[in-house]
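Figure S7 source data.
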Amino acid sequence: MNAEEYVESVIQKIEEKNPGEKEFHQAVREVLESVTPLLKEKPEYMKAKILERITEPERVVMFRVAWEDDNGEVHVNRGYRVQFNSALGPYKGGLRFHPSVYLGLVKFLGFEQIFKNSLTGLPLGAGKGGSDFDPKGKSDSEVRRFCQAFMTELYRHIGPDTDVPAGDIGVGAREIGYLFGQYKRIVNRFEGALTGKAYEWGGSLIRPEATGYGVTYFLEEMLKTRGEGVERKVVAISGAGNVAQYAAQKVSQLGGIVVTLSDSDGTVYDPEGIKGEKWEYVMELKNVRRGRIKEYAEEYGVQYYPGKMPWEIAEKLEKIDIAMPCATQNEIKEQDAKKMIDNGLKAVVEGANMPSVPGAVRLFLENSVLFGPAKAANAGGVAVSGLEMSQNSMRLQWTAEEVDERLKQIMKRIHEQAWNAAKEYGSPGNLVVGANIAGFKRVADAMLDQGLY
Ligand code: NDP
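Tokens for the predicted NDP complex:
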């Protein structure tokens, strides 16, 4: 069997063995197909069945989370922690609280995390977790009770040298606080078992900003390869949460014009740019009042497109140079990609995980649109989480400048690694292939070194 046939047979077995997990299948196919040239060079990976092993989580924990709402009604949710790969360090990856969470979604995120964490160059294994709990519309007390119930099971599976969760969709500073408080109460130790903590009690400066800033630094590196910069570029961003907020801030600081933000109800289009006081408004709206992005349109008298993502209204935007999807998986469809390309799109950089469907990625690459895949472009979040772990171990905290500088260097290095691997393995400029190969190689070699497990 040649390498192509071997990869296809592995993918087929995975699809049969994990029925219904469509996002997981999608993520596996992309990675496995792109590492085929590497397998030809290193047949020892096939012999040691690295593909079969790397696609099987080391451990999956699924658990009941029972909690009471403000009216005394009992609710039951399902909790997950997928501990995917510990070849490079303790399991590391976020927790997602969203009604769409199920095993296949957590496995896709955990699988992607393996290669992302590897690309950072830090000693980080990979995991992901979450629950189908929906924090939207819940009171602070309800969220607190849910987080406490969730941690009452999760605590026994995590720890600073075992598994260190962080935030993701629906899990921000508030949730990390409640989760950490419950962890500490149970184990009776103040230790870095979670990242994304507030600075005052062990968090890292720049962690809230890290993913959004990192995506923008990665974009800068991409644009540099064509002798361009962010300045004066018209940038459409989706989402209005953690990643979108800080991507918007950094793009504006670098002179770009952020014209859209969205939430699950719709998109606002502000051709003047969402910056300064308008950006502060979004921060207050989303992080304090927990309101809807529609209110931005009402406040500033701009267009609001209910039920639409920015990509679906691409033809209505005067211009779109850069797309930064920062909301969720598979949000950019093939037809949206086409519309954006027709409207002059120059680059796509993924803040969210796997936000572009495979057909959209193909169109971007075929049309010479610079494309920064999530596992490279959004690795800044987990990288600074890694730095938070280092600071916790040393029991000290670095300055914002120090962390930001390290973040910049890490993003630059990730781009360089992906760029070089793409060139070396016959797909120059294709950062999807480059990131997959570079990320995969470090983990696969570590797995070979560590014996059969
Ligand atoms: P938040 O919960 O802070 O924000 C998510 C935003 O996306 C919200 O505006 C939300 O709208 C919107 N959104 C979520 N789901 C959907 C959906 N199905 N359809 C339309 N809009 C949706 O999450 P983050 O900003 O932390 O995460 C965003 C993305 O970035 C995710 O893909 C995550 O995996 C990825 N990521 C996050 C990192 C981090 O450090 N936080 C690190 C690396 C990647 P609404 O409020 O209406 O639901």
